[in-house]
Specification:
Elements: H1 2-37, H2 44-84
Helix pairs in contact: 1-2
């Protein structure tokens, strides 16, 4: 069951990473407009940087979340091998 969950989660992450790549392209293309709009409204560049850093940290957070079912799989297989020994 955990293996199927990990596979489904990986498929979900693939879709999320493709959308994150598209968002990153859009953010990079919109940086000159954000820099120009900074003169009118303060905080535009900081909001832009927050979005970029959020997209960059997304894989780190996802990989940490993926470790949780992986550790449960390791614990489960270790206990099964002890039971048969």
């Amino acid at each position: 069951m955990l293996y199927v969950g990990a596979v489904v989660y990986q498929a979900y992450l693939a879709v999320c990473y493709i959308s994150a790549a598209v968002c990153m392209v859009v953010l990079v293309l919109l940086f000159p407009f954000a820099a120009l709009f900074e003169m009118v409204e303060r905080g535009t560049i900081s909001n832009w940087m927050r979005q970029v850093l959020g997209i960059l940290l997304n894989p780190v957070i996802d990989s940490c979340l993926l470790l949780i079912p992986m550790f449960f799989m390791i614990i489960g297989t270790a206990q099964e091998s002890k039971g048969y020994a």
